[in-house]
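Many introductory courses stop at the sequence. We go one step further.
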Amino acid sequence: MLAEHKAFRELMHDLSASVRSGDVEQQRTCTLDLIELLRDHIAKEDDVLFPMALRMLAAEEHREVDGLATAVDGL
């Protein structure tokens, strides 16, 4: 999962560079790669990571995670 976060940052950097340079084909490639990466990453979170966290976290830990996620949403 961390490698996917790194890949996301690299693709965003490449997309930004392609926008600055006006390279439309590279913009298209980066955008399609980002869409694929995000779809796969979100599916892993929904199908593996979140269910595993629900099984492993105690009720108080789950509330703490919810509180932290709410705080991040407010940024």
